[in-house]
Design a protein that fits this description.
Glycerol uptake facilitator protein; alpha+beta; 13 helices; elongated; about 325 residues; 4-stranded antiparallel β-sheet
């Protein structure tokens, strides 16, 4: 269940109450007249089934509450109520399968922004990769995968493509197109200093190592990227964020970027090129699979919403 709170201009409150009271997926309706100060208006609250959230929010936006008032959603961890159970039962579809599109846009939109925090995490991840490469430490490489923040913009690109939000696509693509080169340049300086001080040795790249999978491109590179992208978007849209950790340590985006820098500094150009190709395959594969999953979920949700009436009658 989700808790919905709206700030409604007085002249629209009756229509808001009508929308919520007639919807099968809404319950626990509360009206606080004149309670809102900024913006001024009435506060209307309700608990809604996750499956109904998208339809209800669309209705509230049609009333203009996103411009003249306000709409907020919060996750309810526990709801002990027969009315809440009935609302979830009557709502179309299943809660685990429901996508709250405005919530998805908000999450991916926030994570797609190019800012100091994003650049810092991406840079630290690439530098961790550099250390992992020269020490042959697969554990350090896994740590770099977890630290890397690149899935946010990749998911945002997929969401923007499916929902035709080209502003989101441009912003997320810019974060990736600027973020990776900046992180790689800083890692380059880090690697040069390491080589000059004798910490990074060309011999560290020679021979067989546990981290050689980073630059070795093959069919499994694309397969893993596709599976990770699909799992990541499924996790993101079903609010099961714990699964995202598995996605982070499946794809070799950040490790490929870091390995390419180390290989270039140590004049291992074959491995550098292989790492760059690996990076591109992972980026494209994740976005493609995430977009396909999102399209399938959108189609399935639309079908489910037409199978049951949304209003009480």
């Amino acid at each position: 269940m989700l808790h919905l709170r709206t700030v409604s201009p007085p002249e629209k409150t009756e229509r808001v109450l009508e929308l919520l009271s007639e919807h099968r997926g809404a319950t626990h309706l509360v009206l606080l007249k004149g309670a809102a100060v900024q913006p001024a208006g009435d506060v209307v609250e309700a608990d809604i089934a996750r499956e109904s959230a998208d339809d209800i929010i669309d209705g509230l936006c049609e009333l203009g509450l996103d411009h003249t008032g306000g709409i907020t959603l919060e996750v309810i961890d526990t709801a002990l109520s027969d009315a809440a159970d009935q609302a979830e039962e009557d709502a179309p579809g299943e809660g685990a399968d429901a996508v709250v599109w405005q919530e998805l846009l908000g999450r991916t939109g926030e994570e797609s922004r190019l800012n100091v925090t994003f650049l810092s995490f991406l840079t630290f991840a690439c530098m961790l990769t550099a250390v992992g490469v020269v020490t042959g430490s697969s554990v350090t490489i896994v740590g770099a995968m977890v630290v890397g923040p690149e899935f946010g913009p990749l998911a945002a690109v997929a969401v923007g493509l499916v929902m035709r939000r080209w502003d989101l696509v441009r912003r997320a693509a810019a974060a990736l197109a600027i973020g990776f080169p900046v992180a790689m340049l800083i890692t380059l300086a880090f690697t040069v200093v390491g080589e000059a001080t004798g910490l990074f040795d060309r011999a560290a790249l020679l021979g067989d190592h546990d981290v050689d999978f980073i630059y070795q491109v093959g069919p499994y590179s694309l397969i893993v990227a596709l599976l990770a992208g699909a799992a990541g978007m499924l996790s993101l849209t079903s609010a099961k964020s714990a699964a995202l950790v598995g996605v982070f340590i499946s794809v070799t985006t950040v490790p490929a970027a870091g390995y390419a820098v180390v290989a270039a500094v140590l004049n291992e150009w074959g491995r550098c090129i292989g790492s760059v190709v690996q990076l591109v395959i992972n980026l494209v594969g994740v976005v493609a699979a995430a977009a396909v999953v999102l399209m399938l979920r959108r189609k399935g949700q639309r079908r489910a919403s037409t199978e049951r009436p949304l209003s009480r009658g």
